[in-house]
Each structure stands twice: as structure tokens, then as C-alpha cells.
From TrEMBL:
One of its GO terms (biological process) is regulation of transcription by RNA polymerase II. Residues 17-203 form the Mediator complex subunit MED14 N-terminal domain. Residues 1007-1034 are annotated as: Disordered. GO terms for molecular function: transcription coregulator activity. Component of the Mediator complex. Belongs to the Mediator complex subunit 14 family. One of its GO terms (cellular component) is mediator complex. The keyword Transcription regulation applies. This is Mediator of RNA polymerase II transcription subunit 14. Component of the Mediator complex, a coactivator involved in the regulated transcription of nearly all RNA polymerase II-dependent genes. Mediator functions as a bridge to convey information from gene-specific regulatory proteins to the basal RNA polymerase II transcription machinery. Mediator is recruited to promoters by direct interactions with regulatory proteins and serves as a scaffold for the assembly of a functional preinitiation complex with RNA polymerase II and the general transcription factors.
Length: 1364
């Protein structure tokens, strides 16, 4: 790229590229990319195609921008080219000078090695002229080796040499200790087992040649060496070359060279083995038995090892070579010496031998003094425990063993598994007889041992432990202490036993060991002692398992029981057990018979002495019955389930003992009450009892017997016995058990009384399982727990008898009344569902939708022997009066009470159903029926029929339970009070008709004295509220009604009530003492519909009254009421308003009003929208007063703001498509702890409206309320703090400044509202700016409130997540 047109000389380092080449390649590359793009784009969607085109244009534009920069820069290429050429020339010249200097240096070093050598001219002349070198030395021939022998020559020579050696051995005497000599490769291999090996050859080629000893190896091994550690290095091993030379000299001059070789080397091996054993003496002094052994070296090359030396013997005088006080013939020892055959021999005192292995002490195999000592101790221990084994075996020689036993003498076939199992036939087949002994291996002489005593036995080891099986999972192991040789008694168990067993025998173990070491024949008595202890420990473990205490010793004296010595023969053969949950001092004694080992059980009664801690036994009773005998026979001590059976046995014993204690308590109680009784079949008590009732006039006098005329449950004889709730085999094999302390014992009283009902006893056919009694086919059983501390069993039995008699009288009278008047009580009116001793169930109107199930029962006969009533599913408000009528049995005409009672429940059934419909929705009645816990629920068929029938009814209007109060006044009259303002009285006239009257006239001259609280009713003189199952009316309304009733304040008169009853309901009026039409006769069949319409009308009157108050407070004097009491008319400067009662609701009418000659044209659609909103909100059943106040506040808005609010209401009715949440303007709230109760407020003074917008997530069925405060003059939206009072209330507020809530959710609401307000203020475009100026049309204005709420809809996702 030279602009002058003259190209420079070619430069090999020139990296320039032609500009035309760059442009050509760039254009070509762009074109190719464009073609590739056109081929790929048709397969992509629109978005991907647009993205690919943009990427292509960006990359192409970037490349051409770079080309443009390059072309502008190319103007300076000529200057840069000249500079590069100059730099290249200078670098080339510099490299020439540097290469020249390097070549001069290399030439200097190369000339040193280029000098010519000194050539051997004479040798070259000789070789060239003569053809050979004549100056070579002649001795060089000696250095050249002879030619090697061939393999044939070698084999021939070896065969000849082997033949010579074999012939020489044939003519030579060979010692018998040698193994067969093997000749190979000219060498004779000689081997003497466990001593040495040698190799011999000859020094010539004839049979007269001498023997040559080529090698000698001594075989002196210990036990460790046999495991692969190599031969022992004797002290003279470094002199083996000298030994071989001496042996070579001796055999060369001997006439019997092989005998000479054997004698020398054999003597060397024996003396070496003995020296090695002597050298191990110091090692024994470091072991744990160093104080009980002594090693003495004899002058005759012998070693004597004394072991099990008594600790009291003084062995200080004995030295390494002197015996001192030790005696070879008295003290236990073994001696190692060289016998006549020049072999090591081991002798033992006393004389013992292995039962099978005669070479047990083979020193050639095991050259270790410590191992030899342990094997000797093991053999001696085996013989000591074998002596005890034979003593125990001789005890039972008279009785043959039940299983095969293995002899333990020297002729035992398998000493590694010596086992003697002597299971003898028990005397008289007694299951507690045990005699099982065996010999087992000890872990001291074996490598492995597990918890069961099973040893991983090595071959050749002996059993050194005598194992004697005790009761349960316990064993007594008799072993020999390998340090001192004394017997040890070891307590072991094959399972996890409690430490109490080991603690109980710790005090006798040492004493029994001394006794056994002094006289081994005492092993029999020692074993018996441990058997007794182990059997007692089984009962102790069983008591711990059952959660009761046991003692081996107890401070108790038996001075009052002279025969105690015959019962308890030995102090160590019994154990005490404390009986759980007993007030008196009762103890159980478990005694073990000395010879038979059979346990016997005694119950002792003790008394305490305040001056001493010693207990005095007053009586002792032996516990036995057939079940105990069968359990004793099932306790097989050889069974693995023995401990489990002992637990069952002890559990049964305690049960029998407690039954015995309760049996004694019953007899004492009957004696105290002067009730005659007698023992029946040893486990029952027969007595005669007559129930008694308290004296009515004088409670201080004793109770009187019940009137025989009313005593229907009678019998001559009653039987009482003791039961418990635990079956015989209550303990499971997996160890789970019920603690004995939790046993529940019952007193069961049984007798026969087939006739209970006076009228029709055949109806008592159902089995009754209620509380603590059982009845079936005339057989009565009463069961009472013995653990009750409130009342004794006889008092509870008396109360139950009285209660059953009371219910029997009522049931008989009801049955008689129903059967005697079938026309008045047909099956379609009343049916008997079931009869039980303490309950009767009656079904009222089974074929009608008002069917009801009546339970007549005694709820708690022990506390309150009164009859209770329960109606399901529709409660009857007259229950208090009906119960009082049933319980008033002192009247002479009790039969008339029953007749009046039946008529009352039948006549009031439909009325109760109608009242229940006003308060409880039909879908909730079945839930009330199932959740009621006053008595047992009705049968499934009855309940299901009622629930199915109720669910088929249409849903009726249900009033808030806080609004309606039910007050029963008599068995024929009910008062219903609505919000403590209006009330009606319902009087039952007959089964078909009732009378409804305005309560205002009833309270005019006769104020009620009945007080009510919530859903309960209290009558004068009755302080206990009776549950009518009517939903509670709340604190405020109930308290106000009670206060009005106390003060005698009359209720308000129901306006135009006669028009509703006569003109709209077509009911006939009845005469009134005041000559007013205040009561009307109503058919009971239509009572439900009529009551619903009456209270809808009363509710509208109440709302109308509240609306009048709100209008007066909000609009001031700008309202007026016309003559018609059902219409309110008022106005403001924008609108005319009419509030009209239209049954069954309240309607609002609105019209635009002219102002300054111009009529504000609020669209009619918006006015209709607000009136519909008013209708929907007012006619909701909750928070009506709060709703009325909020809606009337909306009517004070100016037209423009009114239209804005109507647009918001329209958006609530149909959710806009761009919004995610449904919305609503709330007119009520359940939050009462705020400074203001309204949910909508308009302040004209501050031009601010306060309202709450509810956003509803229909998908998740949850919502959130956003309180807003809108200043419409400044178009400013803020958070409305409900804790802050309205501006006109600030002067009444006690706080000077109200802070915002610190609730994090409320704080988040504030942030979201501020964020939305900032966005809305900047983006909203208002169409009308003047709020107060009337406009021709307001239908097209832009609502800032709606715009703000739409934006708020997009920002509340953090508070109300949209995803499900």
C-alpha cells in the first residue's frame, strides 16, 4: 500500500496485506452469511427470525465500521513502511557483528583438539612386513580357560559319584534316628526330625574316600517359630563354622563316622533346648503370676518350676539353684530333665495326665517355658473341676439321668466338648426340681468367648469351668484361679439380668469360696444356696418388671404368730414384696422350700408403731387356688420361658392377694353398716340390701328406706365378688406388660330381677351397657371400681338403685299413658325407640319433617339424681319447665304430670323446630346432633333418617344468634326477643294452634322476672342454668335483656303489626283484655313460615329505626318523615332520597336535584347501580347497623365523586379483564378495637373520604383489606390508619398524636399504597377538574379512585399471592 507508486524491495518480514483483498473478503463473507440466513429463517418463528436479522445487521455493521477506520488510517502507511525498513537494516547489521564474534570464540576452542597424535610406527612396520606381531608375551596362554565339560560328561560323573556314596552308605552302620537318607547330585541328605539336618559328600572317587560335612542346620523351634518366624538363634550360632570343623575332624578319624556325627549334634541340640528354657526364666518374672511361681535349676541339668505357691509360704530362702522351703513331693511343680535316652522329659507332681494326648508335653514341638506352664495349669485345673464334677455326679447316682451323660474320665472321646446334662425326674413330678451341670471351656485358655459362655475351642484345649445351671437365665461357674489354684465362684447370666441378683449374693460369695477351698465336698450345699438365691432373684426381677418393690430384709416381728417358724424355716429362703396402691400395711412373702424348691405365698397384715419403725405382723394367710396350682405346674425351670412364666405367676399371686384384701374390706364395710351377710363359695358374699334416700325435712336425720311402692328393682339376695380388668395371661412374650399398680379392681354385685316395669316389662329387651351396670334378660350386674375415693361402693350402689327405680317409674307411666290413649298418642305422633334402665328414647312425629328424638335420662346418678331431657336435632326451649315437672314426683297426682308432660312435648315440637330453623342452618343441624355429648347419641337409623330429611329442606333465612333471644316462660309459653327492642310471645293452645302476641302488651302491666344469659335460661330460685341448646345471644344483647327484665322496662311496640298478621298473613285476631288486637291464632303446621316472615318484618323495622338515627346525625335538619311509618324522605343539595320498607327488605330511591337552574345529570344507570348496592348490603344478616351507617355516609358525596364511586362499584360487580383479583367495597368489619367503627366516612370539612377496598383471590379463597383515605380536592390517596379518629373527633381524643401501627403487614400496605399513589398521580389524566360545578353529563369522566384501585391490583401480589 504505497501511495507513491514505487514498491520497496521485498522484505521477508513484511506482514502487510492488500486493502483490496480485505475489502473483497469482507464483502464475500457478508454475502455468504446473508445467503445462509435466508435458508435458515423460514424454519423459525417470527420472533426468532427478527432476532437473527438484527444479529446479522449488527455484526455486519461492526465489520464495515472497522474497515472504514482501517481505510482512514492507511494514509500513514508509507511513513510506517520506511521506518520498518530502517529498523530491519539496523537489526541485520547488528546480527552480522554478533555472529562474527561467536565464530571467533568457537574457532579458538576447536584448534586445541585438532592437534595430531603420536603414531606407533614400529608395530605398524612389523605387521605390514611380516603379517604378525612378534612381540606378544608367552604367559598369556595360561589365562585362557580350558574348554567346558559337556552335559553328558557332567551326568556321567554325577551318576558315578552317587553310586559311590550309596555303596559307602550300604557298608556303613547308620543310626536309627536318621530318616531315610536321600542322595542327590553327589550329596547325601541326613535329617533327624525336630533336631538337625546335615549334608555329606566324599573327598575322592572311591568307596574308601572320607566323608566331608558340607552343611549343618539345627532345628530348635519355639511355638512362635512354628508360625513362620524362623529358627531360634542360639548363643553360639556365630561359631557354627568352628563346630562344623570339629565335627569334620571327629568323623574323619572315627570308625563309625555317622554315629559320631549323630552323637555330637544330638547332644548339642538337647543341651541347647534346655539352655533356651532356662533363659526364659527371667521372662516369667515379668508375668502376672510372678509371685506364685519359683524356678530352680538342678545340678543334674534339670529345671523345676513350682507354681500355685501359697501366699503365706516364705520362698525368700529359695535361690536359683536351691529349693529352700519348697518340697518337690508337697508343692505343685513340674520338672524338665534329660533322661537315659538323652531326651527331655517333663514330670509333674501330683501326677496328672491328659485324658487323650500322651505327648501333651512335647518340648520338641513347643520350646516355650511360659506356654508349657499355662498348659500345665490348664491340665491341673481340669482335674480339680473334674473332682467337683464327680462329687456332684455321685449325689445323683441313685437316680438315672433322663438324658445321655458323657463320662469325664481319661477315656473321654471328645474332651473339647465335655458336657454333662443331668436332668433327673422331679420328685413327685415337681417342676421346680433342677440338676443340670456341665464342663465348659474357659476364656483364659481360649481365644474367643461370647456372653453365653460358648468358647471358640482350639484343638487340644481342656474344659476348666464347671457350669451349674441355676433358675432363670443364670449360671454358677466354678473355675480355678490360674494364679493360686484356688476355686472361684463366678456368677454369670446368658441374658441381661438386673444387678440386684449379683448384689444379693455378693455377701455370701467370698464365704462360700472359703468353704469350698477348705472342703471340696461342700460343693453340694453351696449349689443349693445359689439355687435358692437364683429362684428368689427370678421373683425379684419379676417384681421389678411389674413395677413393685421387693425386699430381702424387713423390720418386722412375728411375735403374734407362733407358727411362723414352721412357715419360714430359713432366713435366706424368702423375700418380701410390697403390694401396690394399698393404704394398709400388706406384704406378700414368697417362701422357697429347702428341699423341693417349690415357692409358697403368704399374705401378712402389719400394723405400725408410732414409737418405733418396726412393723408388727397381725395375721398371715396362705394364698392358693386352682389357677395358682396350674401356673406352678407350668413353670418348667428347663424351659427358656421360665422367667416369663414366673412373671405370670407373680402377677396372678398379686391379683389373688389384692382380691383377698378387697374381700376383707367388703366384709369389714358390711359389718360397719350392720348389713347381714355370709360367705358364699369362698369367693363371693351374699347379702340383703334395701336402698335408702336422705331425709327430706331434716337432713341431719339418718336416711329412710325407700317406699316399697316405688321400689321396683327388688331382690331378696345379692352376690358381690371382686374382679379385675387384667386377664390371666396379660404379660406378652415381647416383654410388654401392664404395671401391677395399674390393675383396676371392681366390686361386682349381681342379682335376678326379671320384672322392672309395672306396665309392660316385655319392652326391656335390649342389652344395656351404661356407666357401671349391665342388664340382660332380668340379670343385673353392677360394677364399681375400688379406687374411687369420693364415695364408697355401697353408696354408689344405693344411688344407682334409686336412679333406676326413678326411671322405671317414669318409663312405666309413659308407657301406660301411650298405650291407654292410642287416639291421642298414635304411632305417627310418638314412638318408643328404646328403653334402658336409665334412659328412654321417644321419637316425635316420625313421618314429618319436624321429627325429633327425645332422650329422657339421668345424667349423673352419683351427683344429681334428677331426670334430664335432650331433644335432637331441634332443641326445645321448654326443657327447664319440662324437667321440673318430671322431677316433681312429690305431688299426689304424678300421673297427671306425665300426661301433661307428653302433651307439652308434642304440642311444642313444631314450635321448637321453627325456632331452631331461625337460628341454625339445616346443614349444621346434623353436626350439632353428632357433637352433642350430654348422653349417648341416638341409633344410626334414627339419626341418619333425621339428617337425610333435614338436608332435603330448602335453605331458609337464618338470623344471627346475637340478634335473637329465646326465653321460656312456662310449659305453654315462649318469648322471642329481637335485639332487646321487639318481642313476641308464643302460647300453645292445642296440638293444632298457638297464639302469637306482641310482647309489648304482655310487659305493660306484668314485667317478667325471668333472666337470661346467652343461650341459657334461669328460673327464679334455680341457680343452675339449663342448657336449651339455643345458640348464644352474645354478651351485650343478653346483658341488656337481663337488665331490662330486672328493672321491669317494657319492650317496644311492633308498629303496624296487625297489618302484617291480618292483611298479609291472613291470621284471625283474638280478643284481648285491653280490647286491642294484639294476639292472633296461628296454625302450628305453618308456624315455621309465619315466624320467618314476622322476624323479617321486625328486622326491617329495626333497621329502619337505626337508619332514622343515622340520617338525623349525618344530614342534620335536611330530612323529614312523612305520615307513612314505612317511608323516610330527605334531601341534600344534590339529590332527593326515599327509604322504603318493602318486605322482606329495605329499598333506597334516589333522584337528581336542580341547582341554580341546572339539574345535575348523574346517569340513571349509576343511581340504579348504587340502589342495588344498597339493597345487597343492607339485607345481609350481619353487622346491619354498621352497614346502614356506612351506606348513608356514601349519600353525602358530591356528584362527581358519586359517579367515581359508582364506577368502582361497577368494577366490583364485573371484574375488569386486566385485573387479577375480584374486589368489593366493604361496609362492615368485625374489628372493634379501633377508634372509629365506620368502614366508609365522608368529611366535607377536609374534603376527604375514608373507605376500605377488599381484594379477593377467588382461586385460593382468601382476601385482604386495604384501608384508603382520599382527599378529592387535592387528588391525593393515602393509607387510612384505623387507630386514628376522624378530624371532627380529634378534639375529643385523649392522645395528641396517633402513630401508625407497627404491624409488618400494615407497614407493607403503606409502602404499596405510597408506590401506587406516586404512579397514579403522574399518569392519571382527569377529564373534569371542578368537583362542585354541576355538569351536563358525568358519564364519561375518568375516575381517579378506579384508576388507583386498578394500579393497586397489580402491586399487592406480595400480600395476596395469586398462584394457588
Amino acid at each position: 500500500m504505497n501511495n507513491q507508486g514505487q514498491s520497496p524491495p521485498p522484505d521477508p518480514n513484511n506482514n502487510n496485506v492488500s486493502l483490496s483483498l480485505v475489502i473483497h473478503r469482507l464483502v464475500e463473507n457478508s454475502y455468504n452469511n446473508l445467503l445462509s440466513l435466508t435458508e435458515k429463517l423460514p424454519n423459525h418463528n417470527d420472533q426468532d427470525r427478527k432476532k437473527a436479522i438484527i444479529d446479522y445487521l449488527d455484526s455486519t455493521r461492526e465489520k464495515f465500521l472497522r474497515l472504514l477506520v482501517l481505510m482512514k488510517w492507511s494514509d500513514h502507511v508509507s511513513t510506517l513502511t520506511k521506518a520498518n525498513q530502517i529498523m530491519h537494516l539496523l537489526n541485520q547489521e547488528d546480527s552480522y557483528f554478533r555472529d562474527t564474534a561467536d565464530e571467533l570464540i568457537m574457532t579458538k576452542f576447536n584448534l586445541i583438539n585438532a592437534r595430531a597424535p603420536i603414531y606407533d610406527i614400529p608395530t605398524a612396520i612389523d605387521v605390514l612386513t611380516t603379517g604378525s606381531y612378534q612381540r606378544m608375551p608367552t604367559d598369556i596362554k595360561k589365562v585362557i580357560p580350558p574348554p567346558p565339560l559337556t552335559s553328558i560328561e557332567i551326568d556321567s560323573a554325577m551318576e558315578k559319584l552317587n553310586d559311590i556314596i550309596k555303596y559307602k552308605l550300604f557298608i556303613t552302620d547308620i543310626p536309627k534316628e536318621f530318616e531315610p537318607i536321600r542322595v542327590e547330585n553327589g550329596i547325601a541328605h541326613i535329617v533327624v526330625p525336630n533336631e538337625y539336618s546335615a549334608t555329606l559328600s566324599i573327598d575322592g572317587g572311591t568307596e574308601k574316600s572320607n566323608w566331608v560335612l558340607t552343611s549343618l542346620n539345627l532345628y530348635i523351634y519355639s511355638q512362635k517359630d512354628q508360625n513362620g518366624e524362623g529358627p531360634i538363634k542360639v548363643a553360639y550360632e556365630n561359631k557354627m563354622k568352628y563346630v562344623q570343623d570339629r565335627i569334620q575332624n571327629r568323623i574323619s578319624s572315627s570308625s563309625s563316622p555317622l554315629f559320631e556325627l549323630h552323637n555330637i549334634v544330638h547332644h548339642l541340640c538337647i543341651t541347647s533346648q534346655l539352655d533356651i528354657l532356662i533363659s526364659q526364666i527371667d521372662g516369667l518374672k515379668k508375668t502376672m503370676i510372678k509371685n506364685n511361681i519359683k524356678c530352680v535349676q538342678g545340678k543334674d541339668q534339670s529345671l523345676t518350676v513350682f507354681y500355685w505357691i501359697p501366699e503365706e509360704m516364705n520362698i525368700a530362702s529359695a535361690g536359683p539353684t536351691s529349693l529352700g522351703n519348697l518340697n518337690i513331693m508337697k508343692n505343685t511343680n513340674f520338672r524338665i530333665s534329660i533322661d537315659e535316652t538323652l531326651k527331655l522329659k517333663v514330670t509333674h507332681y501330683p501326677n496328672i495326665h491328659h485324658p487323650k494326648n500322651e505327648n501333651y508335653f512335647n518340648l520338641n514341638v513347643n520350646l516355650n517355658l511360659e506356654t508349657l506352664l499355662l498348659k500345665t495349669i490348664e491340665l491341673n485345673s481340669y482335674h480339680k473341676v473334674l473332682a467337683l464334677f464327680n462329687i456332684l455326679l455321685s449325689k445323683s447316682n441313685s437316680n438315672p439321668p433322663t438324658s445321655s451323660s458323657t463320662s469325664t474320665g481319661p477315656s473321654i472321646s471328645n474332651p473339647s466338648s465335655i458336657l454333662l446334662s443331668t436332668q433327673f425326674n422331679a420328685i413327685n413330678n415337681r417342676s421346680f426340681h433342677l440338676n443340670d451341670i456341665k464342663l465348659v471351656h474357659s476364656s483364659k485358655f481360649s481365644s474367643d468367648a461370647n456372653m453365653n459362655g460358648d468358647i471358640s475351642v482350639q484343638e487340644g484345649t481342656l474344659p476348666t469351668v464347671l457350669r451349674i445351671k441355676l433358675y432363670g437365665s443364670k449360671y454358677l461357674d466354678v473355675s480355678v484361679n490360674f494364679q493360686n489354684g484356688r476355686y472361684n465362684l463366678l456368677k454369670s447370666s446368658s441374658s441381661s439380668s438386673s444387678s440386684s441378683y449379683f448384689q444379693s449374693i455378693q455377701e455370701i460369695s467370698q464365704q462360700q469360696e472359703l468353704k469350698l477351698n477348705s472342703d471340696p465336698n461342700e460343693i453340694r450345699s453351696i449349689v443349693n444356696i445359689f439355687k435358692h438365691r437364683s429362684l428368689l432373684s427370678c421373683f425379684e426381677e419379676a417384681s421389678l418388671f411389674l413395677g413393685i418393690e421387693s425386699f430381702y430384709k424387713l423390720p418386722i416381728t412375728f411375735s403374734n404368730i407362733p407358727t411362723i417358724s414352721e412357715i419360714l424355716q430359713a432366713d435366706s429362703n424368702y423375700i418380701y414384696t410390697r403390694l401396690p396402691q394399698e393404704v394398709d400395711n400388706y406384704y406378700l412373702i414368697i417362701n422357697i422350700q429347702p428341699q423341693t424348691f417349690i415357692p409358697t405365698f403368704y399374705l401378712i397384715t402389719c400394723r405400725t408403731n408410732t414409737k418405733s419403725s418396726i412393723l408388727y405382723a397381725e395375721s398371715i394367710i396362705r394364698l392358693e387356688n386352682e389357677s395358682l396350682q396350674s401356673l406352678l405346674k407350668s413353670c418348667d425351670c428347663n424351659n427358656s420361658q421360665f422367667q416369663f412364666r414366673i412373671q405370670n405367676l407373680l402377677s396372678q399371686i398379686i391379683s389373688v392377694a389384692k382380691e383377698k384384701i378387697h374381700f376383707l374390706n367388703i366384709t369389714q364395710h358390711l359389718q360397719k353398716q350392720s348389713i347381714p351377710f355370709e360367705i358364699y363359695q369362698s369367693d363371693k358374699i351374699q347379702f340383703v340390701y334395701t336402698p335408702t334416700v336422705p331425709h327430706l325435712t331434716n337432713p341431719s336425720q339418718p336416711p329412710q328406706p325407700i317406699n316399697p311402692k316405688h321400689y321396683l328393682l327388688n331382690t331378696d339376695k345379692m352376690l358381690i365378688r371382686i374382679l379385675n380388668d387384667i386377664p390371666h395371661s396379660h404379660i406378652s412374650n415381647n416383654g410388654c406388660s401392664t404395671k401391677v399398680g395399674s390393675f383396676n379392681y371392681y366390686y361386682e354385685i349381681s342379682f335376678q330381677c326379671p320384672r322392672l316395669l309395672n306396665y309392660d316389662n316385655s319392652l326391656m329387651k335390649l342389652d344395656s351397657e351404661r356407666l357401671n351396670f349391665h342388664y340382660q334378660d332380668g340379670q343385673w350386674k353392677f360394677r364399681y371400681s375400688s379406687s374411687s375415693s369420693s364415695q364408697d361402693w355401697l353408696t354408689r350402689f344405693n344411688n344407682d338403685l334409686i336412679s333406676i327405680n326413678c326411671m322405671a317409674n317414669i318409663t312405666s307411666l309413659i308407657l301406660k299413658e301411650i298405650k291407654s290413649q292410642p287416639d291421642q298418642y298414635p304411632p305417627s305422633v310418638i314412638q318408643v325407640v328404646s328403653i334402658q334402665p336409665m334412659e328412654i328414647q321417644l321419637l316425635l312425629f316420625p313421618q314429618k319433617e319436624t321429627r325429633n328424638l327425645l332422650h329422657i335420662y339421668i345424667k349423673d346418678p352419683q351427683k344429681k339424681k334428677e331426670v334430664s331431657l335432650l331433644f335432637q336435632p331441634s332443641p326445645n326451649p321448654l326443657v327447664p319447665f319440662l324437667e321440673k315437672e318430671l322431677n316433681n314426683d312429690q305431688q299426689p297426682s304424678y300421673h297427671q304430670n306425665i300426661s301433661h308432660f307428653l302433651k307439652s312435648i308434642i304440642n311444642s315440637n313444631d314450635i321448637s323446630f321453627a325456632i331452631h330453623n331461625l337460628l341454625v342452618p339445616p346443614q349444621h343441624r346434623l353436626l350439632q346432633l353428632q357433637s352433642n355429648g350430654a348422653t349417648q347419641p341416638p341409633s344410626t337409623s334414627i339419626g341418619s333418617t333425621i339428617s337425610n330429611h333435614q338436608t332435603q329442606q330448602p335453605t331458609s333465612l337464618v338470623f344471627n344468634p346475637l340478634d335473637l333471644l329465646v326465653v321460656p316462660r312456662s310449659t305453654q309459653q315462649i318469648r322471642l326477643i329481637y335485639k332487646n327492642h321487639f318481642g313476641i310471645d308464643i302460647k300453645i293452645l292445642s296440638q293444632e294452634y298457638c297464639d302469637i302476641e306482641d310482647s309489648y302488651y304482655s310487659t305493660l302491666n306484668n314485667p317478667t322476672n325471668t333472666t337470661t344469659t346467652g343461650g341459657t335460661t334461669q328460673q327464679p330460685g334455680n341457680t343452675t342454668p339449663t342448657n336449651t341448646q339455643t345458640p348464644a345471644t352474645g354478651g351485650a344483647s343478653a346483658a341488656a335483656a337481663a337488665q331490662k327484665a330486672k328493672e321491669g322496662i317494657k319492650l317496644n311496640m311492633i308498629n303496624s303489626f296487625y297489618q302484617l298478621m291480618e292483611q298479609k298473613l291472613n291470621l284471625p285476631a283474638l280478643d284481648n283484655p285491653l280490647n286491642n288486637r294484639t294476639s292472633w291464632m296461628v296454625p302450628i303446621a305453618n308456624i315455621s313460615k309465619i315466624l320467618t316472615k314476622i322476624f323479617i318484618y321486625i328486622s326491617s323495622l329495626y333497621v329502619f329505626r337505626q337508619a332514622t338515627i343515622f340520617i338525623c346525625n349525618i344530614f342534620g335538619t335536611h330530612y323529614k318523615i312523612i305520615q307513612n311509618i314505612s317511608i323516610i324522605k330527605w334531601e341534600n343539595k344534590y339529590f332527593f332520597f326515599n327509604l322504603i320498607i318493602k318486605e322482606p327488605s329495605i329499598e333506597l330511591e334516589m333522584m337528581n336535584k336542580e341547582q341554580n337552574g341546572i339539574k345535575a345529570l348523574v346517569p340513571v344507570e349509576d343511581l340504579k347501580l348504587l340502589t342495588e348496592f344498597f339493597h345487597r348490603k343492607v339485607n345481609q344478616q350481619s353487622y346491619k347497623s354498621q352497614t346502614i351507617g356506612s351506606l348513608i355516609q356514601m349519600l353525602t358525596l358530591p356528584p362527581l365523586l358519586f359517579v367515581e364511586l359508582c364506577k368502582v362499584i361497577a368494577s366490583c360487580k364485573t371484574k375488569p379483564p386486566q385485573c387479577r383479583y375480584a374486589r368489593d367495597l366493604t361496609t362492615n368489619t368485625s374489628i372493634w378495637n379501633t377508634a372509629n367503627k365506620e368502614t366508609f366516612h365522608h368529611s366535607e370539612k377536609t374534603t376527604t373520604i375514608y373507605f376500605i377496598v377488599r381484594f379477593i383471590n377467588v382461586q385460593n379463597n382468601n382476601f385482604i383489606d386495604i384501608p384508603l383515605k382520599y382527599n378529592y380536592s387535592q387528588r391525593l390517596m393515602n393509607y387510612w390508619n384505623k387507630l386514628e379518629p376522624f378530624p371532627n373527633q380529634l378534639q375529643q381524643s385523649s392522645a395528641s398524636a396517633i402513630t401508625l401501627t407497627q404491624d409488618p403487614i400494615e407497614s407493607q400496605k403503606i409502602q404499596i399504597i405510597d408506590q401506587t399513589a406516586t404512579t397514579a398521580s403522574s399518569n392519571f389524566q382527569p377529564s373534569i377538574t371542578n368537583i362542585d360545578q354541576p355538569q351536563q353529563s358525568l358519564s364519561d369522566i375518568n375516575s381517579y379512585i378506579l384508576y388507583f384501585i386498578d394500579n393497586l391490583d397489580q402491586n399487592i401480589n406480595s400480600l395476596l399471592p395469586f398462584e394457588k
